[in-house]
Amino acid sequence: MQRFSLMSSKKFEEVVAKLAAGVGHPDVRGMFAKIGAAKTYAEVEKVVQPGLGPTGLMEFMRFDLGEVLRKAQGEKAPKSMRFLIGNALIMKKMVEHVPDAGSYAPVTILVDERADGVHLSYDTMASFLETYGNAEALKVARELDAKVEELLTAAAK
Length: 157
Fold this sequence. Notes:
By secondary structure, the protein is of the alpha+beta class. It has one domain (about 5-25, about 55-155): 2-Layer Sandwich (TATA-Binding Protein). The protein is built from seven helices and five strands; from the N terminus they run βαααβαβαββαα. β4 (about 105-115) and β5 form a beta hairpin.
């Protein structure tokens, strides 16, 4: 596994806001209901496309890990947020070649506050899929990694 990590001197809330601005925020439950009702892949594409942000990615869910820390340590606890980010159309391209790719998509991005700044971390999809030896899946994974790395770099600035 290979981890892509950046550090930002910006405030946690600013980094999270920039990250959020780079991805779409669809009604995920409604989107999956429409995907389930779709009769063709073309219909699925029409459902997914509007939910994508400027990076071609969307936020599926976020977990405020810091909330748990604050319950134990109080308001001085560091902030930490885990995001599930992806694109169902990209996932499909990987899973067609490597079914296990579905275990890794959507991807996890961690944004956490530390003494030296705000860290943004992501375990690359290509590093997960390399062991399967499928060039097509690996190509798609690298393209996804580039999108995520661009998103994190923009959020850290």
